[in-house]
Amino acid sequence: MEMLLVWVGRLAGTAGVVLSLLAVLLRVRGFYNFAGFQIGTLLLAGVAAMLVGCLGYVAALVEGRRNERIGHG
Fold this sequence. Notes:
Elements: H1 2-28, E1 33-34, E2 37-38, H2 39-70
């Protein structure tokens, strides 16, 4: 379970960085919409994905600590 949480954290974090970077680059170039979404919506989705990534890592840390405490790891 711990490795699954780590991979969810990695994937979501990477997707969030890519979405946020895309939103910033498009907005700097003067676009207000991309693929039917406002640029602010893409930025918000990127931030939310990075949050999910952080929560995945935190959950993996807690899971590892719990396993150490009860002797499974």
